[in-house]
Design brief:
Keywords: Coiled coil. With 112 residues, the chain is mostly helical. It has one helix and no strands.
């Protein structure tokens, strides 16, 4: 009977050791899982922040594109106006020169 008790205790001791090893493995795995979950939360948070920034930049880009189109249209309009005004200036200068020549001719005629 004493030998059976010794055998039973060694079996129990082995089971306790195995249980301790299993618990240790469980704790290690649990700790790894917690670290992975925290890393996932951190990455998810960063992803969400980047997604918000991207949306903000896309809206800003759309606004700037719209403004750029307006500026281009305004620029074209101003360039056309500038061209027309330069043409008017050239015509007026020609008229002025013709008028000046005409005036000089009349002055010469009257002074004779």
């Amino acid at each position: 009977m004493a030998q059976e008790t010794v055998v039973d205790f060694s079996v129990i001791k082995q089971k306790i050791i195995k249980t301790d090893e299993i618990l240790r493995m469980f704790m290690e795995t649990s700790n790894k899982l917690k670290k992975v979950q925290q890393a996932y939360k951190d990455i998810k948070l960063k992803h969400d922040q980047v997604a918000l920034s991207l949306n903000r930049f896309q809206l800003e880009n759309e606004q700037l594109s719209f403004n750029l189109e307006n500026v281009k249209l305004n620029r074209e309009k101003l360039q056309q106006e500038n061209k027309e005004l330069k043409e008017q200036i050239a015509l007026l200068e020609d008229k002025y020169n013709q008028q000046a020549v005409q005036s000089q001719l009349e002055i010469k005629k009257t002074s004779r």
